[in-house]
Design brief:
It contains one helix and seven strands, in the order βββββββα. By secondary structure, it is mainly beta.
Length: 106
């Protein structure tokens, strides 16, 4: 049996010159892939998040949420160091995501 709502946890370790290409993550029909990320280690330069073509400077211990199947996202290249990201996420029913988004816009 496939259970689409079970989440997963990742530890992403990126070394000098690495970046994450701009992409969206897959989600089955009726679900949104939602991820929360914490920056545990920051390089001297780069490693910042890009969401829908907007670069956001991140600092150590910053937490960010991404609708990974809806938003184009990635990261800038790392220079002089490494980046360590703790990432956890799950597939959330679209109607629940839409309700939360409506509540936030009020």
């Amino acid at each position: 049996m496939y259970e689409p709502e079970i989440g997963n946890i990742l530890m992403n370790h990126y070394k000098d010159h690495a970046c994450t290409h701009i992409h969206t993550d897959p989600a089955p029909k009726g679900y949104t892939h939602v991820r929360a990320n914490v920056l545990l280690k920051k390089p001297q330069e780069g490693g910042d998040m890009i969401v829908d073509n907007e670069v956001t400077n991140l600092e150590k211990n910053d937490l960010w949420l991404i609708l990974a199947s809806l938003e184009n996202h990635g990261s800038t290249p790392i220079k002089n160091g490494e980046r360590l990201v703790y990432s956890f996420g799950a597939l959330v029913k679209d109607e629940q995501v839409n309700k939360i988004l409506q509540d936030v816009q009020c």
